[in-house]
Design brief:
binds 4-O-methyl-alpha-D-glucopyranuronic acid; TIM Barrel; alpha/beta; five-stranded mixed β-sheet; 679 residues; Chitobiase, domain 2; single chain; 20 helices; Alpha-d-glucuronidase, C-terminal Domain
Length: 679
């Protein structure tokens, strides 16, 4: 069915109702709770009258107990949807072991209605990862670190008195895709978040989110006992420090009985941590874990550490530091690991810690906001990036994928989870552009079910976002599926990474070589010289390959068996190195830069073809963004090639246009107010 284009500012995300055209559905609820009332209201207003009647009831409700529906395997949040007889009539029954499970089922039913898919195929679903979490890098002054969608959604100044209705809509959007936790403040945390007034503000958010099954968490600044408590030390082995945290946890739980726990960035990029006192990351995490354990809380301890004093390859440092701590963390600690060993680049090999710490629950951390993929303006659908990492084989145990490590069932871990650095702000469309919403959506869907394909998710997102018109869905899906690879192509093909400009990370800066810390300089990563390019991470170089399981390491140690996509991540190769297809490394590099630019042009054409089918506001904004992307893809390509040619002195292959400007011009560009970079 083609839904005619209507005015749309993108606010409704994936919750656009079709009921306005077809009346409201008949929904019968057994039991009463805030959560059940939400589920029923969502279905009444969201489902067309042609669907239903719908019955919502817990599996043990007397009205349906005779059906003996087994919900034991669905966990506390899963659901069962079926067409069956209840009270002598045929109904769609949404049931679960909990009200939250019923709410998730209600949203699943709505998703199927909006995408026009077969109700009979919804069936039974449980979440694969227990913690499905957004990490907001939101500062208390409203600036969002690496945020490109306006100010923070949280108005800390007017909280707790003002409960902006947007907080409810945030919870709805998240619950609809299965998110069940949110860390509301930046990992570069301020201790003030742990003071009584801010606890009260966070408690107000928790009250709003609770009926939607979403818990709040806080990033904790490790030195808070010194900054707030007046202690002389934050050494985790000091009993006074442990007592301070215990009292602080008790205080938080008095205000927020279902508080989720703490996220900690320690001894990383200037943040305080246990290493300041010669204690280990496990000492630090376990001390905090003991404080929240009596309340059922958890600690997510980040493995994103690298030290300016350490000459070791940055890609190796987290593994070196954390692997020996395997088995040393308390039961309520997860170690949160970024998907790759550097920092959310457009493509990174999976982090070698996945599979290497079997006695520790490892939580996946993805970045939904696009710090390195063109901010809010470039169209880069991250579903394929998430999927590529989750599906990667660790090589540690037969057939083991990264997703299986994160789910932790094989190791018997009670905790599992996936975190995404949010791309949400106060912009009317939440994410600074319609297509960015797809990354938030894909993250939630994959955290619930990592076996979903990024293509299937793109399709269902497109149908819910623009209407279920097959031409729109086909075209939008095609654009989305090519988009991330295009960004890889025009920013860092063949495994190149970390080539962006300093501080704000906007645009190219492969020439940067004068920053204080060696590993902050792009030249550290590409190591290009007259003879070749790439980072030798084999035995003749940093030997980072040895951090992978032997089978994977063997493959990566040889450029002939290393995937082309990761070639220069692991190898330093001559410019005239012959690739399997016969072309030289240089020629292939240029070909990929050109391909990236061409793909963006093709995406623009695709979008132009949809003009008559998409509402004016969203069409125009995306069209303008694609024009920016086309210009900036050329800029990335031209600046990078101008720089590589200044080093290798090679000509461009025939047919490849010369850069528009000389290298000096690209080097001279400055962007003083680029967003997302707190001053
Ligand atoms: C929150 C990168 C980003 C920082 C971020 C850091 C992290 O370095 O540029 O803004 O800090 O990652 O993940 O802690």
């Amino acid at each position: 069915m083609t839904v005619p284009a209507q005015a749309d500012d993108g606010y409704r995300l994936w919750l656009r109702n079709i009921a306005a055209q077809t009346g409201t559905a008949q929904v019968e609820v057994h039991g009463d709770s805030a959560t059940l009332r939400i589920a029923a209201d969502e279905l009444r207003t969201g489902l067309g009258a042609n669907a239903g009647p719908v019955v919502l009831a817990r599996a043990n409700d007397p009205s349906i107990a005779a059906l003996r529906i087994d919900v034991a395997g669905l966990g506390t949040e899963g659901y069962d949807i079926r067409t069956t007889q209840v009270g002598g009539r045929s109904v769609i029954l949404v049931t679960a072991g909990s009200d939250i499970g019923i709410l998730h089922g209600a949203y699943a039913l709505l998703r199927h209605a909006r995408t026009g898919s077969d109700m009979a195929r919804i069936g039974v679903r449980g979440a694969r990862f227990g913690l499905r979490m957004l990490n907001h890098w939101d500062n208390l002054d409203g600036v969002v670190e690496r945020g490109y969608a306006g100010q923070s959604l949280w108005d800390w100044w007017t909280l707790p008195d003002v409960r902006d209705p947007r907080y409810v809509d945030y919870a709805r959007a998240n619950a609809a895709i299965g998110i069940n936790g949110t860390v509301v403040n930046n990992v570069n945390a301020k201790a003030i978040s742990l003071t009584a007034p801010y606890i009260a503000k966070t408690a107000a958010l928790a009250d709003v989110f609770r009926p939607y099954g979403i818990k709040v968490y806080l990033s904790a600044r490790f030195s808070a006992p010194v900054e707030l408590g007046g202690l002389k030390t934050a050494d985790p082995r000091d009993p006074a420090v442990a007592a301070w945290w215990k009292a602080k946890a008790d205080e938080i739980y008095r205000a927020i009985p279902d508080f989720g726990g703490f996220l900690v960035k320690a001894n990383s990029e200037g943040q305080p941590g246990p290493r300041d006192y010669g204690a280990s990351h496990a000492d630090g995490a376990n001390m905090l874990a003991a404080a929240v354990a009596p309340h059922g809380g958890i600690v997510m301890w980040r493995a994103f550490v690298y030290a300016d004093t350490d000459p070791e390859d940055r890609a190796k440092q987290a593994y070196t530091e954390f692997r020996p701590l395997d088995g040393k963390f308390a039961d309520n600690v997860l170690v949160q690991v970024k998907n790759g060993a550097i920092d959310f680049q457009p493509r990174e090999p999976f982090h070698p810690l996945f599979g290497a710490m079997p006695r520790t629950p490892l939580m996946m951390e993805f970045q939904i906001t696009k710090e390195y993929l063109g901010f809010a303006t470039h169209l880069a659908y991250l579903g394929p990036l998430f999927e590529e990492v989750l599906d990667a084989r660790t090589g540690v145990r037969a057939g083991e994928t990264v997703a299986a490590v994160v789910d932790g069932r094989a190791q018997g871990h009670a905790l599992s989870g996936m975190a995404g650095v949010a791309n949400i702000g106060r912009d009317r469309d939440w994410s600074g552009g319609t297509f960015n919403q797809a990354n938030w959506y894909a993250f939630g869907r994959l955290a619930w079910d990592p076996t979903l394909s990024s293509e299937a998710i793109a399709r269902e997102w497109a149908a819910q976002t623009f209407g279920n018109d097959p031409v729109i869905v086909e075209t939008v899906t095609r654009m989305m599926l090519r988009s991330r690879e295009a960004v890889v192509d025009y920013t860092g093909p063949l495994g190149l990474a970390h080539l962006m400009a300093t501080g704000h990370h906007y645009g190219p800066g492969p020439w940067v070589d004068d920053l204080q810390r060696p590993e902050w300089n792009p030249v550290y990563y590409h190591r290009a010289d007259r003879n070749g390019i790439g980072f030798d991470r084999t035995r003749t170089g940093s030997n980072a390959v040895a951090q992978y399981a032997p089978g994977v390491a063997r493959k990566l140690a040889d450029p002939k068996t290393t995937p082309l996509e990761q070639l220069l991540w692991f190898h330093h190769l001559p410019w005239d190195y012959r690739l399997p297809g016969g072309s030289t490394l240089w020629v292939e590099l240029v070909r990929r830069y050109d391909r990236g630019v061409a793909t963006v042009d093709a995406m623009r054409r695709d979008w132009a073809s949809l003009k008559p089918r998409i509402d004016e506001e969203r069409w125009t904004k995306t069209d303008s963004f694609l024009a920016i992307q086309a210009r900036e893809a050329r800029w990335w390509r031209d600046a990078s090639l101008a720089y590589w040619m200044s080093i290798n002195r090679l000509p461009l292959p025939a047919g490849s246009p010369p850069p528009e400007h000389d290298l000096a011009w690209y080097k001279a560009q400055r962007f003083p107010f680029a967003p997302g970079n707190p001053q």
